[in-house]
Amino acid sequence: MTREILLTLATFVLTCATQAQEITSAAESNTATTTQLSNDNDDKYKWEFWWGGGFDLASNYMWRGFDQSYRGGNRTMLDPSLQPSVAFGYGKFYVEFWGNASLISDYKEFDIFLGFEHENLLITLYDVFCGVGSDFNKPFFDKRMTNHSLTATIDYTLFDRLRLHWATTFLHPDDYIETGKRTGKRAFSSYFEIAYTQPVKDLFDIEISAGASPWTAPFWCFENDMESVAKGFNVTNLSVMLNREFEIGNVALPVQLGYIYNPTTRYHYAMLIAGFSF
């Protein structure tokens, strides 16, 4: 079964890459357009201070194909979540603060990101604090007491269409192997995702993505009962999202509508996210 999944993902990547290469080759024939894009990239990375913020209202807080509301002890198929954010940067480097407050369950989260972005490459190191009703100031590196996790990610986009994502957790109190020869060792729970975006004229973008746990990930990857750790390789996130962004002056109004299926838990979700950013 694992081989079939890997072959399917490989076929998907090759197909997307071929299509994206054809589109890119056609675009490169227009010298004026290419020059304009180059100038835009130069402007984006001027070495000066900048800041931005935003706010989203999501029908559910979904992460890697999992509904996070169950962590608050009251799992629901619909749990609207408020998600504010603010970022401060200098050139290619930035720090971002992001939060989530679920309206039905008790789940709350506060994340701090340190990021570096250059052209199609994005590298982040972030702390996730998701201890419901817990003390934020508990010792950070104490594996028995901390409510924080520390994760590093890398994203690379090919042809402005095909995004590759990898994330590995280096610190979390539950990220340890519980059985077998490696009992008590860190699991370094990881996640990888492949996403392809296809514009549909000027109407919206379609994003198709597939994400999986490459090995046993006790930090985040669970089976259908949401209590037992899923062993080995597991596909957890198959999604199709329609994205459209409206603009009013300097304010962007992004809207996302889509469908998510988690093969590991066998749960289906309809998603709606709307907000603003500046």
What can you tell me about this protein's structure?
The chain has a single domain, classed as Beta Barrel (Porin), CATH 2.40.160. Helices cover 15% and strands 48% of the residues. The N terminus is likely disordered. It contains two helices and 14 strands, in the order ααββββββββββββββ. The chain has a twelve-stranded antiparallel beta barrel with strand order 1-4-5-6-7-8-9-10-11-12-13-14. Strands 2-3 form a two-stranded antiparallel sheet. It is mainly beta.
Q: What's this, in brief?
A:
This protein is mainly beta. It has two helices and 14 strands; from the N terminus they run H-H-E-E-E-E-E-E-E-E-E-E-E-E-E-E. The N terminus is likely disordered.
Characteristics of this structure?
278 residues; mainly beta; Porin; twelve-stranded antiparallel barrel; two-stranded antiparallel sheet; 2 helices
